[in-house]
Amino acid sequence: MTREEAWNLLTEYNKEDFHLEHAQIVEQTMRYFANQLGYGDEADFWAIVGLLHDLDFERYPDEHCIKEQEIMRERGIDERIIHAAASHGYGITVDIKPEHEMEKVLYAVDELTGLIGAVAIMRPSKSVQDLELKSVKKKYKSKNFAAGCSREVIERGAEMLGWELDELINRTIEALRTFRE
């Protein structure tokens, strides 16, 4: 599947700027981690999974990670993409456990990119370029801040990867710095 094909599918089911921007942020974050973790030859694949991970969320929020499997299978999309995208709903909407390191990264960074983005826009610079771990941790502890970003999922994702929470946050900030303003 090409990036263009993935984008066309995504925009068929998603129209809201928020969802499209989130998809692109996760796409680019996944590409970054593919390259950082030694999967550079699979960076396009990781990115496409990131782009499509919330394919069904806007139109079918009550069937999130369930409906997207059906949609993708109807289109003949590679089962690896389907499994990977759906696995980010593990323990929430599906019982598809993240197995590959790529799936664990997606599980961990999906919620975290949203939280970091929310912290960044509260700053005078409105940027991740000068964002520090301590600023994210301070807001992270406030359950009312970016309440839709599950701390439990973020922590479970860090654990799946075998990383400390601070390492996951720092690495994700670094990823966002490479492309987000």
Structure description:
By secondary structure, the chain is mainly alpha-helical. It has one domain. It has 9 helices and no strands. It has helices at residues 3-13, 17-36, 43-52, 67-74, 79-87, 101-122, 133-141, 151-161, 165-177. Helix 2 (17-36) runs antiparallel to helix 3 and helix 2 (17-36) crosses helix 6. The longest helix is centred in the middle third of the chain and has 22 residues, at 101-122.
Task: Please specify the SSE layout and strand pairing.
Elements: H1 3-13, H2 17-36, H3 43-52, H4 67-74, H5 79-87, H6 101-122, H7 133-141, H8 151-161, H9 165-177
Structural key phrases:
9 helices; mainly alpha; 181 residues
Count helical runs: 9
How much β-strand is present in the residues? Answer: under 5%
What is the H/E string? HHHHHHHHH
Q: Provide the number of structural domains.
A: 1
Oligomer: single chain
For the biggest sheet, the summary is: none
3D shape: globular
**What is the strand tally?**
0
Uncertain stretches of 5 or more adjacent residues: none
Question: What's a quick, concise take on this entry?
Answer:
The chain is mainly alpha-helical and 181 residues long. The protein has 9 helices and no strands. Helix content is 62%, strand content 0%.
